[in-house]
Write a structure and sequence with these properties.
Chain B: Keywords: Signal, Transport. Chain B: InterPro entries: SBP. The complex is a heterotrimer of chains A (281), B (432) and C (319). Chain A folds into 2 domains: 56 residues, no CATH class; 211 residues, MetI-like fold (Orthogonal Bundle). Helices cover 74% and strands 0% of the residues of chain A. In chain A, helix 1 crosses helix 11. The longest helix of chain A is centred in the N-terminal third of the chain and has 34 residues. Chain A starts with 5 loop residues before the first helix and ends with a helix. Chain B has 3 domains: 32 residues, no CATH class; 191 residues, Periplasmic binding protein-like II (D-Maltodextrin-Binding Protein, domain 2); 187 residues, Periplasmic binding protein-like II (D-Maltodextrin-Binding Protein, domain 2, 3-Layer(aba) Sandwich). Chain B contains 19 helices and 11 strands. In chain B, the strands form 3 sheets. In chain B, strands 2-1-3-11-6 form a 5-stranded mixed beta sheet. A 4-stranded mixed beta sheet of chain B has the order 8-9-7-10, sandwiched between helices. In chain B, 54% of the residues are buried. Chain C is an all-alpha fold and 319 residues long. Chain C has a single domain, classed as MetI-like (MetI-like fold, Orthogonal Bundle). The interface between A and C is large, with 109 and 121 residues.
């Protein structure tokens, strides 16, 4: 960059700014469209205008008075939080061991996680459907939490072990010198240092669970455990001839809010998490 | 968990405790089966959960029955998705899991054998059977019967009629070909001319095809439901369908047309003929009163000269789930929901045709349900869709093979259908 | 096969601790370390194996049976009959073809767009944070939400795109336009993820090398092809592997956009339909197994054929 002169820089900046605009438009248009739909009135819903001509909050009022949606939202939040908590705890333990300890079977664990990361979820639908049906786990929170944890584990193990490698481990040694067992060293010294990494991983895992559709639609049957993505596809509208597009859009916007919040506040962390767990050439 | 959705549904407390237990035990051996919306009802009595597709004003019928039950039980109407496939998918999945949260099921007339064969619904025997059979039209009753046993109570029937504009054609066509040539004439005169049928890849297309086959005196599947037949009549019906689809008077979006979209097209004034269920009448009167004056009905056109059409029976039957914990109340509730009084209310207010013959004779019906005679006439000699537990598979195969209708090559399509239907009947084929 | 994959991955992973290897006698401390390692990994390993390993074996067992939940009485062991049925079914191969087409086209487009986006994110003089932030939105958004947005956008009258691009038509009711929209939805959603993976690779391209190449008179394009790409190769292959496997599982977008109508079913959709709509556990499980095998083959080809190093495998170099 030192090669480039000052006047050229302005021109370059303008060009970069234009590219930025392209990216912003690319990323936001579909999101803004669903937001727009969610604010349209019933009679303007099908006018095809990108910006609503008449604004209304009715769609939001409707969904928040529908038990179907409110319960789905509760399910989504509860299931995603519980799965995230468990996956991150188990993942932290395993990642610590992988990053710091030497023990036989480590290769196998890394291999298995990798395999699961590539596993086609739909292949599990039929055996899980049948197993959960017999065990009475079908259409329950645990019935979804179990597969979510499973598929979130590889993600959290990889991301966390990458973070753990950045931690100054001399501190751990120092703690051990002072007589702490490896377990104590883990809990008292390393865990606080690892917190940012754990937090980032939690966000990624939460997004994953929040996003799932295959399991949500296959392993649930009622609002007792159906999450929002699955519930969306079952919205009926209040009467036979009413198109539920407005309610669907409003519900879609509601479940997009947490994602937007994460992205706005934790952009750096998410980028770091996604890239560190992946490749470093 | 409890904090996640505070106090939405009564009786959830107990359930969430149960979830927690299940969570704690991990794969607990046979955790208590999960209850759906089975909270304690109004006054602590029994709740009867009815699962049925959306029907305008059905809530009023439910409330009338609740008033009659006088607190012994309370019926809760749970609305299933709009489309039949979606309704079935939801119920079937829960029944497969042995869910006790459903008591009364609103079954499309084609599902009785499947649900009965799988052991998901209770037989109606003894007094219950006698109550249902007395006064009920034989066609609808046949759709609720499987292997000689009654498995459901016909709630409402349905037949498609030919709807036409008498300002365009003074006399309705008698046959399919006549209808097409009338429409083509209208097109030449620059008048509204489209012929509307449910041609999308779904059950509606299968119903249309069934009607055409029955009208041509053919068979898709043998009467005992075990063999794919596809005889000459079935081939003729394919040809009729193709003729419409490739005709200039077909709706350009035929391969995407469902009941509701063709209703809209007719109300927009673009079409001359519409083959659809009677609900379109009330809707036309409400949405386009000026057009409604010329909106007339006639029996379904035939496909062979001199032979009247035989329309496929639609409608819903009420069944009691095997997994219901309140079967006696469920039977009673179902009987109330399909009583003559309830049926009359639904016919007049929601436009769904009754299954009890006496209701048609009610003086109130004449004025508010003027097409009742045409319906009754069709119901005397209807086409019943194939009675087989594999109906869903067969239907999926038929709608897939017939889509888009303009691609039909009668003999070739028939051969393909025969082969794939046989696999579907043996439940060994792959669903498309 | 899976073992080989695991070894390929792990053989490099263990270099992390290479210097400590080879001690003949385990000290007390070593043994404690071992125990702790196992203890810490056990819960994760058990959950992962219980929820994937056991079901896949069970799935294989189910696939050998005639087992339709609607005909409980007709359940029987039929060997490989289900495999014959599925593999001779035109519907299966249509779905397979559709899945392959969607996978190949969308991953190819994503690679190009993702590379461009990665370069923007990496090099932008202005608004780098902004670009990174907004590109995370497609990555994070619930796929079903995005799919609904596309569906409504392409619905005649309702949508802003339908009448613009094909006035009078209904793109989602025709096969090719439907496939194009499914691919569009996939590309939109996952390009940012691809870009992030590639960006990680870009960060490793030494600036000195690029400068040296520039001094030698190499054009920007030449520098990209001759310097950047070779250095990035491992990153690109890993990104491709992950996206290919992910794209092959395509389900959400199709479910919402067409639900498999007009022959747009992917193998995942078809397996779901046979299982959940048809309640045919035998056929459904057979498809599950076939999908699993296909994914394994793809992964194997990447690892053996292109020498893709799986993520995590290069960790030794980073210490």
């Amino acid at each position: 960059m030192a090669i480039i002169g000052g006047t050229e820089t302005t021109g370059r900046k303008v060009r970069w700014a234009l590219l930025d605009v392209v990216v912003v438009v690319y990323a936001l248009v579909p999101v803004l469209w669903i937001v727009s739909l969610s604010f349209k009135t019933t009679d303007t819903l099908t006018d095809g205008n990108f910006i609503p001509r008449k604004w209304t909050l009715d769609n939001y009022r409707t969904i928040f008075t529908t038990t179907e949606f409110v319960r789905a939202l509760g399910n989504s939040i509860g299931i995603a939080l519980i799965s995230t908590a468990i996956a991150v705890v188990l993942g932290t333990m395993a990642a610590y061991a992988i990053a710091r300890l030497d023990f036989p079977g480590k290769r196998a664990l890394i291999g298995v996680s990798l395999l699961i990361a590539m596993f086609p979820q739909v292949s599990l639908v039929s055996p899980l459907f049948e197993t959960e049906r017999t065990l009475g786990l079908f259409n329950t929170w645990p019935g979804l939490i179990l597969p979510y944890i499973t598929f979130a584990l590889p993600l959290s193990i990889y991301t966390l072990s990458a973070f753990f490698r950045e931690i100054p481990w001399e501190l751990e040694k120092a703690a051990k010198m002072d007589g702490a067992t490896p377990g104590q060293a883990f809990r008292r010294v390393i865990a606080p240092l690892a917190a940012p990494g754990v937090f980032t991983t939690a966000i990624l895992v939460f997004i994953f669970c929040w996003n799932d559709f295959v399991f949500a639609i296959s392993l649930t049957s009622t609002s007792a455990s159906r999450t929002v993505p699955a519930a969306l596809s079952f919205f009926t509208g209040s009467s036979q001839f009413e198109d539920p597009a407005g309610s669907i859009s409003a519900a879609a916007v509601v479940i997009t809010v947490p994602i937007i919040v994460f992205v706005l506040f934790f952009q750096r962390r998410i980028v770091a998490g996604l890239t560190s767990g992946a490749v470093k050439g | 968990m409890r904090g996640a959705h505070p106090g939405v549904v009564p009786g959830r407390r107990g359930r969430s405790r149960r979830y927690r237990a299940a969570a704690a035990l991990g794969a607990a051996f046979l955790a208590a089966p999960m209850v759906a919306a089975c909270g304690s009802g109004g006054g602590g009595g029994t709740t009867i959960n009815v699962y049925y597709g959306p029907e305008e004003n059905f809530q009023n019928v439910v409330e009338a029955c609740n008033a009659k039950a006088a607190g012994r039980y309370r019926i809760v109407y749970n609305t299933l998705p709009r489309e039949a496939d979606g309704q079935r998918e939801q119920m079937v999945r829960r029944l497969a899991a042995g869910d006790p949260g459903m008591d009364v099921l609103g079954l499309d007339v084609t599902w009785t054998p499947e649900f009965a064969e799988a052991g998901w619904i209770e037989e109606w025997a003894g007094q219950n059977r006698a109550d249902v059979e007395s006064g009920t039209l034989p066609g609808p009753l046949k759709t609720a019967t499987y292997h000689g046993k009654l498995y459901a109570a016909p709630k409402n029937t349905n037949v498609q009629l030919l709807w036409y504009r008498d300002d365009l054609v003074p006399n309705p066509p008698q046959t399919w070909d006549e209808m097409l040539s009338m429409a083509e004439q209208l097109k030449q005169q620059g008048k509204p001319n489209e012929v509307l049928v449910t041609g999308a890849q779904y059950e509606g297309l299968v119903a249309t095809y069934n009607t055409l086959v029955a009208s041509s005196g053919g068979h898709i599947i043998s009467d005992d439901g075990t063999r794919a037949v596809m005889d000459a009549g079935a081939v003729h019906a394919l040809d009729e369908l193709r003729k419409l689809a490739t005709s200039p008077v077909a709706d350009p979006s035929l391969s995407n047309d469902k009941e509701d979209s063709i209703r809209h097209t007719m109300e927009d004034g673009r079409a001359a003929f519409e083959l659809n269920w009677p609900f379109v009448y009330a809707s036309m009167r409400k949405d386009r009163p000026e057009l409604a004056a010329h909106f007339k009905w006639a029996p379904y056109p035939g496909t062979l000269p001199g032979m009247p059409g035989k329309a496929a029976i639609g409608g819903f039957n009420l069944a009691v789930s095997t997994y219901s914990r309140h079967k006696p109340e469920a039977f009673e509730a179902a009987k109330c929901l399909r009583s003559a009084e309830s049926q009359k209310y639904s016919a007049i207010n929601s436009g769904v045709p009754p299954t009890i013959e006496a209701v048609y004779a009610d003086p109130d019906m004449t004025q508010k349900y003027p097409m009742k005679d045409a319906i009754l006439q069709e119901l005397t000699d209807p086409a019943v869709r194939p009675i087989t537990p594999a109906y869903q598979n067969a239907s999926t195969v038929i709608s897939t093979v017939l889509s888009p209708p303009s691609g039909i090559d009668p003999q070739r399509t028939a051969d393909r259908l025969r082969k794939e239907l046989q696999d579907a009947l043996d439940s060994k084929g792959v669903l498309p | 096969m899976s073992e080989q994959l695991a070894t390929a991955v792990a053989s490099t992973a263990t270099t992390t601790k290479a210097p400590e290897k080879g001690k003949a006698v385990l000290s007390e401390g070593k043994r404690a370390e071992r125990r702790l390692g196992w203890l810490l990994c056990a819960p994760a390993a058990i959950v992962m194996l219980a929820v994937t390993g056991y079901p896949i074996v069970y799935s294989f067992w189910l696939s050998l049976q005639r087992f339709d939940l609607r005909f409980p009485a007709r359940r029987e062991f039929i060997g490989l009959d289900n495999y014959v049925t599925v593999l001779t079914s035109g519907y299966w191969w249509t779905a397979f073809g559709v899945t392959a087409v969607i996978t190949v086209i969308s991953v190819a487009i994503e690679l190009v767009l993702g590379m461009i986006l990665a370069l923007i994110m990496h090099r932008a003089l202005v608004g780098r944070g902004l670009v990174r932030t907004v590109s995370l939105i497609p990555y994070g958004i619930v796929t079903v939400v995005a799919a609904f947005s596309w569906r409504y956008a392409w619905t005649p009258k309702t949508g802003y795109l339908a009448d613009l691009v094909s006035p009078g038509g209904a793109p989602l009711t025709e096969r090719l336009p439907s496939l194009a929209i499914i691919i569009l939805a996939e590309v939109w959603k996952t390009t940012p993820f691809m870009a992030l993976l590639l960006m990680a690779g870009l960060a490793l391209v030494p600036d000195d090398l690029l400068k040296a190449a520039a001094m030698d008179g190499a054009s920007a394009w030449q520098r990209f092809v001759k310097v950047t790409l070779p250095v990035m190769k491992p990153a690109i292959l890993v990104a491709l592997l992950f996206r290919t496997l992910d794209a092959f599982r395509v389900f959400d977008n199709i479910f919402i956009l067409t639900n498999g109508a007009q022959q747009t079913s992917s193998v995942s959709i078809q397996a779901y339909d046979n299982l959940i709509k048809g309640l045919n556990l035998g056929i459904g499980s057979t498809m599950s197994i076939l999908i699993f095998l296909t994914v394994a083959v793809i992964a194997f080809l990447f690892v053996k054929g292109f020498g893709t190093a799986a993520p995590g495998s290069d960790q030794g170099g980073r210490r």
